[in-house]
Amino acid sequence: MRGDSDHDDLITWVPRLRRYARALAGNRDDADDLVQDTLERAWSRASLWRSVADMRAWLFAIMHNVHVDALRRGRLATVAMDEDTPEGAARPTQDDRLAVADLQSALARLVPEQREVLLLVALEDMTYADIAQTLGIPLGTVMSRLSRGRERLRSLLDGSASAPGGDAVRLKVVK
Amino acid sequence: MTEAELHAHADRQLTAERSAEVAAWLERRPEETARVRAWELQKRELRELFDPVLDETPPSSLQRRARRRAAWFGRPELAAAASVVLALVAGGAGWSLRAAQDGARPAAVQASANDFAARAAIAHTVYAPEVKRPVEVDGAHEDQLVTWLSKRMGAAMKAPHLQSLGYALEGGRLLPGDRGPVAQFMYRDEAGHRLTLYVSNEKPAPPGKGLATADLRAGDAPRPETAFRFVSEGALNVFWWMDGPFRYAITAAADRATLTQVSAEVYRQLEGSPS
Lengths: 175, 275
Hints:
The complex is a heterodimer of chains A (175) and B (275).
Chain A: H1 14-25, H2 28-44, H3 55-72, H4 97-109, H5 112-122, H6 128-135, H7 139-162
Helix pairs in contact in A: 1-2, 2-3, 3-6, 4-7, 5-7, 6-7
Chain B: H1 3-10, H2 16-27, H3 30-50, H4 52-55, H5 60-66, H6 68-74, H7 76-92, H8 97-102, H9 108-127, E1 137-138, H10 142-153, E2 168-176, E3 181-188, E4 194-200, H11 210-220, E5 228-233, E6 236-243, E7 246-252, H12 256-270
Antiparallel strand pairs in B: 1-2, 2-3, 3-4, 4-7, 5-6, 6-7
Helix pairs in contact in B: 1-2, 1-3, 6-7, 9-11
């Protein structure tokens, strides 16, 4: 899928890159750093654009690489372990603020590999094949990460829902 | 019913027919149904949580970065890097394999570089016509292939996926290079035409010996951006480039546009992989 406009401008892609980055990084500053680095890399390879068949997959692949590099350099926290999720990943639209915080912190607890696949499916509606291509992994790996990520998220959300009650927090064992 | 199909059902990625079958299967299985519902709910909630970002006004720094003029003029080193790439692509187009082989070499660096392209082309010529044994490890065992080649090459290898361009991975093999092992991945399109990816991370020889010195310079000089080069010999075309310690060559009896596209895709998938 190419952009609506021509390739002279990446601005049309910025909102979607930001949405994905926000969910991936968990906070606005890290997310916008990711987007900025992604745009710079994309421009530095502008000579390749003509041969890029799927601009979205290409840009998201660049962001994936930027993200992996950032994780490797320790610039981003691999897993946000505590509850004080940095101020609004996005402005919550639901009344139930608690539920929002829960989903966000549960998401932050997934390993990045699972989070990526889950988010490309949820936010971008990417086909599994496109995700395999974007992340440079076999289709089978996409499916196993998606499956494990979803089950882990489900058990995290189940667990946190029962936590305020005071009873023992029962997290399902995820193999 | 596989787990993958349940996910594909939840994500509307099945054909209508298969999706109906999955729905019927789920009807008698409340526990599985609950899981699928939970996944669908997760998806909706993630959208609700993050879709508002789409409506935010991006910070002005990002808006500037997204525009061509600002990005290029604001970062002269990027503009310079890009022009180097373009120049090399243009400059490389005229060389031929014959020139590399018969000694009419433009310069030592280019010669050693063309030797690489020539080796890739020869490896292609030798194995592409193979009917029974085109590869040592076939594409169905991609994990084994990648593990094996990574071990022998001493670096993490990856088989790029080119299905979107019509090329399926047939497998790969290990070959002797100039100074060490090289890997060859083979692909084929629906018509049976083969395309090979030749990967080398051979260490440059110690300095002080003609070509080797030039090669060292070629390999170690700080490069702001990858240089793509193109050579052809008859119907066979080779598109090759260097990236860090690696050299890659794509060879096929395909036109230049196809090779450019494949190369860009391979480069894109390999870029950022550990070297």
